[in-house]
Design brief:
Number of strands: 32
Structural class: mainly beta
Distance between the termini: 54 Å
Number of helices: 3
Helix content: under 10%
Shape: elongated
Largest sheet: 17 strands, parallel
């Protein structure tokens, strides 16, 4: 672990402890620079949003945005009525609310920036609940949940909704665990699909994102300081997610983050590409031996570090790992790859780099896995020098099998060659181009049998 990484993690640990307080700092900032807080001599004028000139400004409907007034009713008035799809504009400020109005198809909620437009919510149920509505968009705003059992967003039976440059933040930090362990950032259920999270930050929740749906997407986003970053649940062969260019980070306190990604039962396809993990006890825990696991789980071009276990494959029908670097978050080495041979008897691993050696220990993989490493390859035909390395349980280095899978000959773990058939054995060619079979009699004597000048076919 180089000094840059250590320094970065120390800075992260210091910043996460203060993360939950950031919206409160914004709320306490001077109100004189915020729209709507001018002197009484200067009446507030609604600015135009350059990319949505027809937007309804919540300030025009009585919202204050000072972090003290209750802006619930004003935001509801701004969302009410109208024949066209709603475009709602929330200028910079902190808006304290107790609930959020229902939204219709194609609604768009715009702020001035994810760190300057903040919705503050203290309830113990989801603030924004979308049920059976589609293509609702949120952009350039933040939601801060302070209720110990609250949630920021819940989508049920929705399609094509999007969150662009949105911050969702809860109250969980190591010092108050487990007070906020039930807080949730995002809940996706009842066949919600096509949801996109782009350039978002989901931090300091008990569960950052919970999904029992497939075909939802997270990209260019960050999960920080959640006790569980992403939970795939439902046990109905449905939960799945695609994540690209995503960062999962935390400090090394055991009370901050237990798992970054946890799939707790039967699920669909999960694909993670260009993802960074650090700071959890177990970075990824996939499947349950009693409840099942994903049909597919792919990790490609990832950096995975953890305190105890980097990747724990408990149950998965088709795991695929490629171009992954493993590391430990502490001075004690983490288990880089733990695979249950009963729940994950087969899989593919390509070019996995250990923090302590060139390749992951071969004993980490069940026999049915196809493994291609920097210095070893399995399950293929090769041209050039082939080297095999002894694994666990004195397994054979090489085997020759017939069409039914019966072993004809083998190279044992100690390098000895073994022939399983008395009519086989070594075939040698003499200087006169004739072939001879070398065999052994029942008293241990070596014998030769002529095979002629034609090359034996087997």
């Amino acid at each position: 672990m180089n000094d840059d990484i250590v320094s970065r993690r120390r800075l992260l640990a210091a910043s996460l402890g203060a993360a939950a307080a950031l919206p409160l700092v914004a709320a306490c900032a001077s109100q004189s620079t915020r729209p709507g807080n001018e002197n009484s001599d200067n009446a507030f004028e609604s600015p135009h949003v350059t990319d949505a000139p027809s937007a309804r400004n919540v300030r025009d409907f009585g919202a204050v945005g000072d972090g003290a007034a209750d802006d619930t009713a004003a935001i509801a008035r701004a969302c009410a009525g109208g024949d066209e799809a709603l475009v709602l504009y929330i200028p910079a400020g902190t808006y304290r609310v107790t609930e959020w109005p229902e939204l219709v198809d194609y609604a768009t909620i715009l702020g001035d920036g994810r760190d300057v437009t903040t919705i503050e919510y203290a309830g113990d149920r989801p603030l924004i609940t979308l049920r059976g509505v589609h293509r609702v968009s949120f952009a350039r705003l933040g939601i801060y949940v302070t209720g110990t059992k609250g949630a920021a967003v819940s989508l049920s039976g929705c399609f094509g909704c999007s969150f662009d440059s949105v911050v969702l933040r809860g109250g969980h930090v190591s010092e108050n665990y487990p007070e906020f362990a039930e807080q949730r950032g995002v809940i996706l259920d009842e066949n919600t699909g096509g949801t996109a999270f782009i350039n978002c930050n989901i931090s300091n929740f008990g569960f950052g994102l919970t999904t029992s749906c497939i075909q939802n997407y997270v990209t260019s986003s960050r999960f920080a300081g959640n006790y569980i970053g992403v939970l795939g649940t439902g046990n109905d062969h449905n939960a799945g997610l695609s994540m690209v260019n995503v960062e999962f980070v935390s400090d090394t306190d055991p009370n901050t983050t237990d798992k970054h990604v946890f799939v707790d039962g039967a699920a669909n396809d999960w694909w993670l590409t260009n993802v960074w993990f650090e700071g959890a006890d177990v970075a990824l825990s996939i499947g349950d031996i009693e409840r099942g696991g994903p049909a597919q789980f792919g990790l490609v071009n990832c950096k995975i570090a953890a305190r105890t276990v980097c990747v724990d494959f408990v149950y998965c029908r088709q795991p695929y790992l490629a171009n992954i670097q493993f590391d430990s978050d502490t001075d004690s080495p983490a288990i880089e790859l733990r695979i249950d041979s009963q729940g994950c008897p087969e899989g593919t691993a390509v070019n996995l780099l250990s923090s302590t050696s060139s390749d992951i220990d071969p004993s980490s993989f069940p026999k049915g896995w196809n493994v291609t490493g920097r210095g070893r390859i399995s399950g293929a035909t090769f041209i050039g020098t082939v080297a095999t390395v002894a694994g666990s349980d004195n397994a054979d280095l090489l085997q020759a099998q017939d069409s039914q899978g019966a072993v004809l000959s083998a190279v044992l773990a100690n390098g000895a060659w073994l022939c399983e058939r008395p009519d086989s054995g070594v075939i040698l060619k003499d200087s006169a181009n004739k072939y001879w079979r070398l065999s052994v009699s029942t008293d241990g004597s070596l014998e030769t049998s002529p095979l002629g000048e034609q090359r034996p076919s087997g």
